[in-house]
Amino acid sequence: MYLLVVTFKSRSTRLQALARFGSVLLAALCSSAAFACPAQLPASLRSIQVGDMVRVNGLQLAIRKVQSSESIQALFAQAEQQWKADGFESKRSANAGWQVLTSLSPTCLATLQLNERGGATGYFTRTVRDPKPPLAITAHAPVPPGATVTSRVSSDDDGRKGLVVTMTSTSSVEELTKFFAGDLHRANWSPPRSHTVKNKATGAEVVFISAQRRREQVDIVLWPDQLTQVVMTISEAL
After folding, report:
1. Does the N terminus or the C terminus of the chain have fewer Cβ atoms within 10 A?
2. By three-state DSSP, how is residue 22 classified?
């Protein structure tokens, strides 16, 4: 069973959370790109789109927030009948306070995850392999020589593009800070701003770097943890 728990407080938080699940979901899907997924939901389950064209490590996600006054068990029973009529098998499970109905086919992973909050509330997520090339914004992310990219997540939110890249490197924080400052300067970003915060618990220093270029904002965070860890966020303003 594969579970995607989505709880978003901000756009950058959403992208970083999705990155953690990309490699697991990719292993669950085969090479077909057809969006053959359960689509029907119980009539009482109201939904709004919170994520579309979200790309996570070669996967494309469509996410809807859902809510109903009916019980979770009644909603699952209805969804199971609807999905079965469309040729999709499903199973129920529970994880971290969520009740989850999952359907895994050769081309799609669909999850309806609900919890009790004044009725039933949660998310309906459909995941397939991404048939499209990466967004152009992915070409704007500088990768230091020898670094390993562990995740790359891009999104298109009504024309506002975003990207989160996570990396590890054997280079030191100081060496990577110098690399990013030079690369951003050569790519015509504004002069990078940086500051350092010391983790009182571990004594490690965390470096924050940010710069702007027209509508784009880049934020880079670096810290030592065996290897040097890097999280880079590039986003476009409205």
Report:
1. C
2. helix
- Give the β-pairing of 46-56 and 205-213: unpaired
* Boundaries of every domain in the chain: 11-129, 136-236
Residue-wise pLDDT for 184-193, tens only, equals 999 899 998 9
- Closest Cα to residue 117, out of 47, 45, 69? 69
Q: What is the pLDDT of residue 154?
A: 72
The pLDDT assigned to 60 comes to 75
Give whole-number Cα distances, 73 to 18, 44, 83, 93, 104, in Å: 27, 13, 15, 12, 20
* Whole-angstrom Cα Rg for the chain: 20
Residue 180: which of 132, 143, 216, 224 has the closest Cα? 143
Where do we find the tokens 């057809």? 34
Class of domain 11-129: alpha beta
Residue 174 exposure: Cα atoms within 13 Å on the Cβ side: 0
Quick check: 220 and 176 in contact, CB under 8 A? no
